């Protein structure tokens, strides 16, 4: 199971992860918000994205971030979204797709 060694924010208002496999992920905050996998943002049965990108501000910020066990981070967003749990394996896959 992939684990972050370090979670950091950049000067460009991005969120980054240094992984225990020696790789690094850096995400633009809006892109990360749009990738939220929660049931409010993605239909649990079909996988259809429910979140309208037009509703996510370009200048969205992270209000807080917390570790969820050893498998994910929970992010509280400035647009009021509170249910986003981002598993580490998802974050790694998003990096690998980029």
Automatic annotation (TrEMBL):
Classification via InterPro entries: GBBH-like_N, GBBH-like_N_sf
Organism in which the protein naturally occurs: Hallerella succinigenes
Keywords in alphabetical order: Iron, Metal-binding
Pfam families: GBBH-like_N (PF06155)
This protein's name: DUF971 family protein
UniProt entry tagged with the keyword Metal-binding: yes
Residue ranges constituting the Gamma-butyrobetaine hydroxylase-like N-terminal domain according to the UniProt record: 9-91
GO molecular function annotations of the record: metal ion binding
């Amino acid at each position: 199971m992939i684990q972050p060694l370090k979670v950091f924010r950049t000067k460009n208002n991005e969120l980054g992860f240094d992984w225990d496999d020696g790789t690094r992920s850096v995400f633009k905050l809006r892109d990360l918000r749009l990738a939220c996998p929660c049931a409010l943002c993605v239909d649990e049965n079909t996988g259809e994205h429910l979140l309208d990108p037009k509703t996510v501000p370009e200048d969205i910020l992270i209000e807080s971030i917390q570790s969820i066990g050893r498998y994910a981070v929970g992010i509280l967003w400035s647009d009021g979204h509170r249910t986003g749990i981002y598993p580490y394996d998802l974050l790694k896959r998003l990096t690998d797709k980029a």
